[in-house]
Amino acid sequence: MRSSDVLNPASVAIVGASSDPERIGGIPIATMLQQGFAGELWPVNPARSDVQGLRCYDAIENLPAAPDAAIVAVPGALAADAVEALARRGTRSAIVFSAGFAEAGAAGAELQQRMVRAAQASGLRLFGPNTIGLFNAHAAYYPFFSTAFERGFPLPGRIGIASQSGAVGSQIFNIARNRGMGTPLCITTGNEADVTLGEAIGWLVDHPGIDVIVAYLEGLRRPELLLQALEAARRARKPVIVHKGGRSALGASAVQSHTAAIAGDDRLFDVVLDEFGAVRAEHTEQMLDIAYAAARRIYPVAGTLGVLTLSGGAGIQMSDAAERAGLAMPQMDGGSQQRLQALLPFASPVNPIDITAQSLNDIDLVGHFAREVAERGGYEAIAVYLAGVGGSLKKGPVLRRSFADVARAHPDRLWTILTTADREAVAAYEQDGLLVFEEPARAIHAIGALARFGRAFARPEAPALSQAMSPATTGAPLPATVPNEAEAKAWLASHGVACLPEALATDAQAAAAAAQGMGFPVVLKIVSPDIAHKSEVGGVQLDLRSAGEVRSAFAAVTAAVARARPDARIDGVLVAPQIADGVECLVSVHRDPQLGLFAAFGLGGIFVELLQDVVFRRCPFDEAAAHAMIAGIRGAPLLRGARGRPPADVDALARLLSRLSVLAHRHGERLRSIELNPVLVRPAGLGAWAADAVIELAAAGSGETRPCENR
Amino acid sequence: MRSSDVLNPASVAIVGASSDPERIGGIPIATMLQQGFAGELWPVNPARSDVQGLRCYDAIENLPAAPDAAIVAVPGALAADAVEALARRGTRSAIVFSAGFAEAGAAGAELQQRMVRAAQASGLRLFGPNTIGLFNAHAAYYPFFSTAFERGFPLPGRIGIASQSGAVGSQIFNIARNRGMGTPLCITTGNEADVTLGEAIGWLVDHPGIDVIVAYLEGLRRPELLLQALEAARRARKPVIVHKGGRSALGASAVQSHTAAIAGDDRLFDVVLDEFGAVRAEHTEQMLDIAYAAARRIYPVAGTLGVLTLSGGAGIQMSDAAERAGLAMPQMDGGSQQRLQALLPFASPVNPIDITAQSLNDIDLVGHFAREVAERGGYEAIAVYLAGVGGSLKKGPVLRRSFADVARAHPDRLWTILTTADREAVAAYEQDGLLVFEEPARAIHAIGALARFGRAFARPEAPALSQAMSPATTGAPLPATVPNEAEAKAWLASHGVACLPEALATDAQAAAAAAQGMGFPVVLKIVSPDIAHKSEVGGVQLDLRSAGEVRSAFAAVTAAVARARPDARIDGVLVAPQIADGVECLVSVHRDPQLGLFAAFGLGGIFVELLQDVVFRRCPFDEAAAHAMIAGIRGAPLLRGARGRPPADVDALARLLSRLSVLAHRHGERLRSIELNPVLVRPAGLGAWAADAVIELAAAGSGETRPCENR
Known about the structure:
Chain A is an alpha/beta fold. In chain A, 38% of the residues lie in helices and 19% in strands. In chain A, helix 11 runs parallel beside helix 16, helix 19 (508-518) packs across helix 20 (547-564) and helix 22 packs across helix 24 (650-666). Chains A and B meet through helix 5, helix 10, helix 11 and helix 16 of A and helix 5, helix 11 and helix 16 of B.
């Protein structure tokens, strides 16, 4: 279904229509009448023949035709009946205001399911229940109940709102309008029985009248649709700014590996937003700051900022903010700096360029400086700090004319004025194509977000997609049951993941012989399908330097495990070379029940468990992405040869990480996690070797995992 | 000098007085005439006999009496002449607007020095030069030039502004006034030739009309006065909110130890603010958010927050924000929750308490809920989310009456309304004692800051002070010249800092004998006054397990050092036991040239150098503070026995850290740094031992350090 179908109906039934323009069943009618909705409005209420001057019908069955859309404002079972009747007639979308469904317990959930069944059978799209609805100001289509219109209707503009929460969506609209920002389209999804936030964002992305999308969500239903919408937005160069409430609400991961527990779903959500080039906001105000700036559709890809200021102090503050926002503030060349000083000798031509408040004695100077900076500085974004002067009664209008001229001459730059001014003065600057903020730190944070969008838009395609399309590997199929360590390693090795050579021994003599074949020192490790964390049960012995030590260690390991886990099935003891020159890392993949497969990477031991110095990325990904992950941990210098060590074989590590991500992706939903801990990354040229491997599989047909991670 | 002397002069001379009310020499006269300054105004200008209707004098010498205060608005040498003349007459304060002094080069700096000399000789207090001045609206005293008054004068209120930057100070006033916040006192310090920001804050703290201080600074002159002012503010329960621009501007530390380089002056500034209970803001808007909330003078010491909301989504957002702000959101007891549900069955009585927008059908319910939550929830702060309804034309006034009643009944609570409303509606709530914010996240951040103030105000005395007053230790005096490792350890041991036993050997045989006395394994380390980092020159050998190994190692160490540093003076080789069960830590003190002595603590090696997992604290401090430091690193669990290790002797470590902080403090400015790296923290009961010690001393009379760290 396209956005035009949902947002532009030719006829709308209002089931539970009210004559009172302040009641839920009356507000949408009153609003649409007042705003001049051009289509048909068909009130439905068996108790009335006339509602707000419109002919009222006694039943959905008796409407003159199938309405394109319907508002349902009757409670409980009546609402479900109404949806069924609408579905029978062929209505294409229904907005169910009524509450008391899945959010209110089992009986409500059953009613909600009844609506969903009817909708799905007929192709009717269901909004809510428990939603305040949506609106499309272009069409004066207002199936929306809120007090937010009391102080005014949406302004013209190109920002769309998508929100799970009706109250939050309505408040976003309210605050945006008070800031002079136009949000003609708004979709709130409520209980999301059918339409979810991802689809709502997708419709906004599709809509030719929308350039920027702000979205609020808490939980996450049908994440695959959200990811699709984010990717569509990125390709269409439409920024999506997401505020997610409830940092633990994504739902607890069922995966039991260490990294999954550390990850936290919220962190994975950040990883996904970043992958798709969406930007996360901490709160509504910040979301609207970014949307306001984004509406100019100028994205400073290189992130260069020139600052012009009447106050040295403000210039310093803006430099601080630019550093936090990841923006660069390069200098103009020497000749250009001299030209600035020729304009005003006591000005400081070093970015942030301080023309001092004394320049106000000749107010035209500010404009001259702005022109020089635009012509010769090469900055993508130019921010001008005017304190209160930009809004002053006398000097403000002069400044406004100067900036209108220079912005017209350089429309490719993102011009921002920092000043305190009343709404009228702000609107005047905005009309000339300039952004206006009062707090410099907020402006610069928003500009930083635009630079992130610019970089995301410049990417040809999401890396995960191209990777997924490369030909299938030829390794062994996923084992039918949970493999032991040796089986896991053999399976991984068949897919090109380097594992340490090793042998499974079932008696001390065989262990000693295997060790002699590999060369000392070696390690011994118990092998049991019932024991995941071996060292906790005494199942590991390190640094064994002779056949005799190996034999004693074999006895010690088996005895300790027998004491600690007498019930465990024992397959034998693994013998492997002990690598002394490897940097210990942890590499793993795990399936998040909502967002799909993620790989994790960190240095081993305390770095992961204590310092949580781990990075994540959605699977699959290529070696370049793996290199970026490896560089992303705080401890990365240890792999580059810090503290006198030789540089580690980061290329081999990246290869291993990427291969693991691809093979995990290829083997489908039954694979829940693979943990390689440690991976020993030896000096450059000597490889990265998995020294242990634990694979978790879902029980067959358990339904514990959900299809979502790729499109 | 007291604030009343500076802020309430009975007579004011204006040197360089202008008839033009828009020129620098004219603005203050026009302003004070308009606002009704009650004292004498004496223009000084040899070219005029009348200025803005006032008699004008031709010279300072010819004024009818010594003016209490003077504004100097003449350039360059004339300004210095004027200050000298004012000083001769006995004027108590001069505000020098003129620019072109220390900020403009050597000639200007000399003129500035001339003013300072004249001022200091007579006791005249000098503001600026290069300042836009100060104002005291209570006295209509406006020695201030700015366009900020164009749109209005300070509102009544109890917030004081102190700012180095005149433009920033003026803009803080401007924004505050637009938000309806009263800032009757403002002091900007400009070049700070005499009066610095610390003193300005101190005067605001002293002033009975001021409850809250907002301060902006960049550099830091006379930090001891700032610390005094912050401690005075803490004792007077007056919050100080500091915005510091220029994160690298505190000046580079001259100390060369590792930790000093990592510290960054900005981080030390944070440490100091935290110690004195001041709160740092990231930008002006955030600073004013906190000041606005602080003006109610209610500090939630326990940091408990009850949230009442019309929107579940907003409740979730506020919970997120509370977690970020360090606020607790405990639940009401079961009986109280039942009472809430009796009011409205479908409300969620779990904090954040969601009464849903449906409650608006009976608008009085909101007030009933608020009363229950206040009476039975025990929350120090109560925040109520009303979306746009709090400002709505019909329901807003009803809500306002409800909240006025409940706030009057519970004036000890910090009441905050989250709503979108126009200025008049906001002012109405404020009159009833409620705070109003539009963005919940900003409100809750501010409430979190108030909780920090509450905890700081509850402390009886700054710990550093009590510690400094305890009796002097009896250890040896600071060595006259830089001690070698053995001397350093002996000196430290005399002050109760545990150092590993060790012996200095000058030949291989003596080294072996010493090692046999201590027991194996041992380490050898070169001892030279010329070598600070021994392992870099091959001057360390570890894990020596026999007399033979010690003898070979002695030869290896001396040969390696002779190769690497043939010029170095060698005192011998130190023999010490090698501890295998110690956690390696770094403990150090270093003197910041501005903020004084700081101790640093972290785990050794990569934890400090790579992960920068280090905490700092101003010296001296007691063991409780040392325990807090130790618990403050990310890697702290390693000391508590993570990953199967025995818990380390944290008590001994805290004792060592505190003792080092006290002895460093006691031995004065010549001591530049002490670095104990590693300190080996053995299992509980076995102590924490410094295994290496490097002491840096300032050259005698070098003047490289400055007196500031204690009062």
